[in-house]
Queue: 2 jobs
Job 1
Amino acid sequence: MSKQRIVVVGNGMVGHKFIDSIINDESVDYEVITFSEESRLAYDRVQLSYFFSGKSAADLALTDESYYQENGINFVLNDKVVELDFVNKQVITASGRIEAYDKLVLATGSFPFVPPIPGNDQEHCHVYRTIDDLEAITESGESSKVGVVIGGGLLGLEAGNALVNLGLDTHIVEFAPRLMAVQLDEGGGALLRRKIEDLGVKVHTEKATSEIVAGEFCRYRMNFADGSFLETDTIIFSAGIRPQDELARSSGLTIGDRGGIVIDNHCQTSVEDVYAIGECALWDNFIFGLVAPGYQMAKVAAAHIKGDTSLAFTGADMSTKLKLLGVDVASIGEVHGQTPGAQSYTYNDEIEQVYKRLTVSADGKKVIGAVLVGDVDAYGSLLQLKLNDMDLPENPSVLILPNVGDGQATGLGVDALPDTAAICSCFDVTKGDIKEAVAAGCTSMSALKDSTKAATGCGGCSALAKQVLDSELANLGFEVKNDICEHFAYSRQQLADIIRVKKIKTFSALLSECGSGLGCEICKPAVANILASYWNDHVLEEAHVGLQDTNDNYLGNMQKDGTYSVVPRIPGGEITPDGLIVIGQIAKEFDLYTKITGGARVDLFGAQLHELPIIWKKLVDAGFETGHAYGKSLRTVKSCVGSTWCRYGVKNSIGFAIDIENRYKGLRSPHKVKFGVSGCTRECAEAQGKDFGLIATDNGWNLFFGGNGGMRPRHGDLFASDLTDELVQTYVDRIYMFYIRTADRLQRTSVWLENLEGGIEYLREVIIDDKLNIAAELESEMAENIKNYQCEWKTTIEDPEKMKRFKHYINSEAKDNSLQFKTERAQRFPIKNAASNKIGFVEIAE
Amino acid sequence: MTTQLTKQLDKQLDKQWTTICQLDDLTPNAGTCAQFKNQQVAIFMCSHTEQVYAVSNFDPIGEAHVLSRGLMGSTEDISYVASPLYKQRFNLATGECLDAPEHVLKTFDIRVEKSQIQLKEAS
């Protein structure tokens, strides 16, 4: 008997998955031919939006021609199958090609639904489905200012993100009263809307577009049924998908009332030897618009063709977790309250913008559904409870309440999961599979990914997979390590103790004392930082050079084009007119982009390596010092003028701020440290948002600790009140050094404080009551450090050896002329040079 | 006869080596950028293993000539440089990106000859 011949119509993600499972099944040998009407073989449509963040068509590809060729898969691109002849068992394409089959698999997918609105077929009206669509959208974007997405569902928000990335003024128009109406309830939809609007995207709900006509201010005007209108240059339709069933329909296969090729539990259609899988297939009157169920169908169909009827498709979970426009959103199970007797728990934090709703069964024992917006940490636990039909804990509300107090995660322990629990739905990896892999020697996430493929699809399960891995390792008696990296079996704090106690002065010495290998980008800067904290050597001593991130190595922050920023210290933000003039003159001479920072100083951008010492020589000569903007160290002390000028000031906050900045400047710590000093309780210096905050009162200083801005803003905790200048200095010396000694690498004071057992109370016992009897030691370490202060730039420009490193080429005086700039608002900005790996040289004229 | 021929061949091959700088000019365990045949080359010297490496200075991910300013490190037996821009690691011996294998740096042949660092196009 000759080889069985399988024809696969459609080479999307699911079609490819089917072919891949045939290739990987060594027990069968079929002849396979696949057709695609697109010009490309299968690519990852789930990651399509990454096309806008720089991924190319090749990056998104799931396969390539050589892989198919090597495995004997015939493929035909750009040719559409137009007829299925079930009698003679053959397919006919648009170009007239005829191919016979023994088994036929339809994986024709779906197409975007474009509502029948007059004017919907104009040049800059698009859909969001293929790479070609995205290329057309990009092209339209170049001639557009405003863009509209019609449809506020999952894909519509992705399309909205694309328009934002293209720099368009973006609007989302939705017919329903809320965004993501299928997956979210009212509260979740409302918060998602608020978060998206905070990003500058305008959301219009309950709008039905009646026509698209020529616009007055933009290319088009969309008139809505309620009489209002919106003008736009580009439109993307994202009003849902429809199964691509035309071919099946015209060939006489049974089609559902609202479309879709009807299939049974083995993905068989109404005609023998013909299968349908993915978004074109209708199972139990339901179309599955997600990739994971499509993959399941592909496996089931492949098994059935082989004669294995044990596998069956019996529906799929439609839960989703994703990031839309930077907002975390998740939906599990049934969320619209259609289950009789269901009750729900809701957690709604309008300040932190978090919404969670958990719906449980009438008896309170099972999860019915959940909506999570803004914080989706609970997704893994809730999904597992639902999928495995597990009993809820006694008080289910803990599953959605934020972690408070002891910081113990209140989720569900992974140990409680059954082995059948699906951890990775993209690759169908269960907890049992992970356990097996661990038992077979996988002890790291990367090994686990290699062996099981878990967390390599959408990546949504990586946190859960890591938890299962850790718990399995622990169960098998492995110690789950808190090591800084593979080169040192110690935490940062342990390394700091070793360095302090053994008086280790170099990385090499530490490596031979207690490490292995050569070090890496994790341990080297961390050790350099600890060495600098304790011994305050110049960071460019030869022994330290190879340890530093480039920022520390060249004493400036590297920018996206490889140039550096120059930031002189301006203590307390106080600067003389002459000082300002010097900075201005230097910026002008070197054409540096100039900006006033939030830390009350001046940043100069765009300095090349060879210019840095020349610029700094001029600054140092004019009396400036390095601002350490590049280091994990003291940054700025923000201040108001206080009692010197202000009518309300009760203490001299600016004078005190300058003293503080000069005291702690240059001190390296696990992360950057900022201070604020306010001259009265009006708090104009925003001191409570800094690591250390001082606010003057009639009775002295109130000291706040542990504040920060950034991604997760936090106000500092009041550490002590009514302190004298001297006492402030003593306490800050001790807290600062205690933090340096014990914090983790890159741990801000806020996180350190939150993780400190006993919290601020304990900190007071250590610092004020000297419970550990280390106060004197901390103070003397700080004094030693202050004594060793040097302006790193001053030392550098005075040392010819150190200066050697500040040229672009070791063997030429040429400068790096691959850099390109554009001018905007009368200043210079970098631009990317597409051909920048091919460069020419310009000698610097002597 | 044969030895003479080999010598001659060696000499010709030698000609392709370009001297860049003295070994002493390199900073141990850190990178240095050199100009070589109209290209920017990042040279690295590891003082623990006494190995030298040469790869293109262009970071294909961050799209800037910066790799000589990255940190050197090792994982298992592979020596690498981590880009100073977005931290992707590149195998110094093969140029392969450990974090995004679709990117491979051009590598160059490098040797230390009489305390001089010499480069030539990879053979």
Job 2
Amino acid sequence: MSTYRKYWAFARVAASEAANQRAELYGRALFFAVILGVFAALWRAVAEAGMPLRAEQEKLVWYLAATEWILLSTPQRHMQIQDEVRRGDVAYQLPRPVSYPRAALAQCLGALLVRAPLLGVVAFVSAFAFTGRMPALQSLLWLVPFGMLASAILAELYVALGLLSFWLTDATPLYWVTGKLLFILGGLMLPLELYPRWLQRVALCTPFPSLLAGPGGFLINGAEQAAPLLALRLLFWACFSFGLVELLFWRATRSLQVSGG
Amino acid sequence: MNTALAIELSGLCKSFRVRRARAVTRLSSVKDFISPISEHVIAVDHVSFAIQPGERVAFIGPNGAGKSTTLKVLSGILHPDAGTAQVLGLTPWRERQKLGFHIGTVFGQRSQLWYHLPARDTFELLGHVYELSPARLRERLKALTEAFELGPLLDKPVSQLSLGERMRAEVAASLLHRPRILFLDEPTIGLDVSAKATIRTLLERQSEQDGATLLLTSHDTGDMERVCQRVIVIHTGRVVWDGSIAELRRGYLGKKRVRLLSERPALSFALPGVRLVAEAAYRCELEVSVEVTPVGRVIAAALEQGALHDLTIEDPPLDEIIQAFYRKTSYRTVDPVPVPTPIRVAQ
């Protein structure tokens, strides 16, 4: 029980810190609103130009609001881990009676609990303001737990990325590659149904569509039918990412023991 | 292995594999990329020592001597290549998490406090990490707040604390779970004179109160003199001195500083082993190699030239002793030493 309490304490402290960094939080909210405004205008222009949009433009704005909400709520801890590995701070955290990667995940979840509600409100208000419409309330309610879980898995993948700093001098290039793959294969801006079939197949082999397009799709096609399969997929990717982080950390500490701090 | 000891190392060795670049030619970078060359660098070479519970020990050496590697082995972060180590009866690299409950660390250039939050939040977090009950955490926090005068600082964000205030909070945070051993790496680096003095006093007092063993690495001789009773010097991975600071002063250089305030404006000394360090009207400072010329002869020579108003005899500053020690030991090393008997380097 005390084990869970210590990770809960990490989450609480991270939540306090995220709440204290108001400028960053408001910056994210502003950026979010601007992005939604730009894309709402863009899709309106596309529709007015007579180009076909398989989904209604308002639905696309709500879709983007959902995927961006997941993405912007996700704490990206890889840079902090990279700094800690480079400076050697991680070595001094190892002697504590707490698992470093689990503490990192707990901190991500704490920050997520602060960011997600605020950005959720921004997403809702902005998307409603730009479209004048609201999706089915049920779909919105389904989106919340699935979006939060997707964000937590994404945060764990960033922890894994950070742990690669044990081997790489700089994990930033990998971060950029992962980011681009997430945007494209995850369907950040457009639902996967608009992609060519071969690209859809490729995307489905990665975790990214389950993290963004899956929950976002609730606002286009409804949630009831897609939810069970998506729940299974998210569960699989949650186990995968958790296992990956544990494996990387185990290998990393072994490498530290062999090659030094 | 003696389980009554706080720390016991025997024949500890640790080497690292480091990549070595080829001589610079046009193709060398390509070759380095395809087939890198690596070599073993010995960081710790048959290090042996034993530390009693409650002892305060300075672990010093020039940069790259092997201090941090030894500390990392002792805290369970690194596996040694050979030798044995016991910390509070536990093998650190096998029982790291268990050991974690009994050791604390302070690193002068790093912080364990959450930068944007009040120190109290970190204390509460550490209370959970070390599984302290709420009542125990309150009691410990109260005691440390009084001892370290943290009252007005606890609820201020760490980002608003001065370096001295932050270090007081850092040390208090490390002592929260009442560790039986505290590893300190440059705990006073960057602090002003009064903040250094405060930290040293607090460390000494807390160690005496809690009976905690301190193992301190520092390049500041003041930390060693004020806090520690014993010094272990490591150089090129090997222990080259293990004994008390007073013995290091007395036994190593065999030199004294003699300051004279004389009736005559200038004194002259043509004695072997006597060097004029500083001179002004009516005063001079000499460095005397006592093995060559006893101090008594120097004073007698001064009295022959006139009356003396004042006279002081001191050891040379510890900084100088240690610098000379490093210079001397860089030319030679000593054989591995048995534990736990304290050792002296043969002169």
